[in-house]
Write a structure and sequence with these properties.
Helix content is about 30%, strand content about 25%. The protein is built from eight helices and 15 strands.
Length: about 350
């Protein structure tokens, strides 16, 4: 072989090997790109609302929390982790509505003892009313601001010879605003909740319910019953199924959540249940005892019925002819009939109008 051809062949072989290695390196680099580390979010943690907080909401531990926030967007009114103590904000009340994820500002909260605190805790159109309680009627001190309670009325209905003891649920789903003069949701000591006896409980009610509570305090004894948190959700589902909560067509998710929150927070004053002493003990009554007037009326009806006189319904008079007595109705068209009967009685008869015990 010619030396010139050998050199050319050897050069071509070297170029082919170099091209193959370069191509291999190129494809290997394209199939396994190097992973780049994600940029670490910079900025302090600020206090934000975990859910929508409407006006009057009492701040609890599950309502707020710290979240990373861009440093350039932090304002002086924000509560910053390490500079503010979140525990000091528990029990405060929202003065301006806060949406979920929005930073909580110092001007949006009202602290207990500040002027207008209780007024800020009330929802629009609501009122605050205070009722006295004891350890027995106030769930042993386990009622705290922010809880929901039902109200019971226990009373004794007296009759002529006996009485009826009864308890009925007159109000439901009342929000507790304060116990005594404290609006703190809980008081802790060494990490444990301190339960203390309270003498008064202040609740959020409608004007109509406030009137009912004022009257109920003069009738009998009021007792509070603590509600479960899950009760509100189950009753809300029942109200939606019954059509009591109207969700308009085309409403946004925020509007629906607002309507549902309002429905869950609404106090209820209808469809009360009751229990009598007869439901508890067979030695107690289970029906309303008769009054003196009712007993007298029953006696008169028995006497008149024994004499064979038919007792009409409505206003009536008793007409006596000699030894025979009849009871005649007084009403439309009965006047002329009564006149004829009176004329027929003569000297031997008399007309006796019935009194309270017989005029019906």
């Amino acid at each position: 072989m010619d030396r010139k051809k050998l050199v050319l062949l050897l050069g071509a072989l070297i170029i082919a090997i170099g091209t193959a290695m370069a191509a291999r390196s190129m494809f290997a680099g394209a199939s396994a790109p190097q992973a780049e580390a994600a940029p670490v979010e910079q900025g302090p943690k600020v206090l934000v609302a975990k859910r929508g907080l409407p006006i009057g909401t009492i701040i609890t531990a599950d309502a707020i929390g710290y979240q990373l926030w861009p440093k350039e967007m932090v304002q002086d009114a924000y509560f910053i982790d390490g500079e503010a103590d979140m525990n000091l904000l528990l029990g405060t009340v929202v003065r301006h509505g806060i949406t979920a994820g929005e930073p909580v500002t110092q001007g949006s909260l009202v602290s207990p003892g500040d002027r207008g605190f209780l007024a800020a805790a009330l929802s629009p159109g609501m009122r605050a009313i205070t009722v006295p309680v004891s350890a027995k009627t106030g769930v042993g001190g386990f009622v705290f601001p922010g809880d929901r309670v039902d109200m019971l009325l226990t009373q004794t209905v007296s009759g002529e010879d006996t009485s009826l003891k009864t308890t009925e649920t007159i109000l439901r789903n009342l929000r507790v605003l304060a116990t005594d003069q404290s609006t703190e949701s809980t008081t802790t000591q060494d990490g444990k909740t301190v339960v203390r006896a309270v003498r008064t409980v202040t609740m959020e009610v409608t004007p109509r319910i406030a009137e009912k509570i004022s009257v109920a305090q003069t009738i009998g004894t009021l007792s509070l019953v603590l509600r479960s948190i899950a009760d509100n959700q189950s009753e809300l589902e029942r109200a939606i199924a019954a059509g009591e909560v109207d969700l308009p067509d085309g409403a946004s998710k925020e509007d629906e959540e607002k309507l549902l929150r309002q429905a869950m927070a609404r106090p209820q004053d209808g469809a009360s249940t009751y229990v009598t002493g007869g439901d508890v003990s067979r030695f107690q009554r289970s029906s309303m005892p008769r009054t003196r007037e009712q007993t007298a009326q029953q006696v008169v009806e028995a006497v008149v019925g024994a004499a064979g006189v038919q007792v009409p319904s409505g206003p009536s008079v008793r007409v006596t002819r000699g030894k025979q007595t009849t009871v005649e109705p007084v009403g439309r068209g009965a006047g002329a009939l009564l006149d004829r009967q009176v004329q027929g009685v003569g000297q031997a008869g008399r007309v006796a109008p019935l009194g309270l015990s017989t005029l019906r």
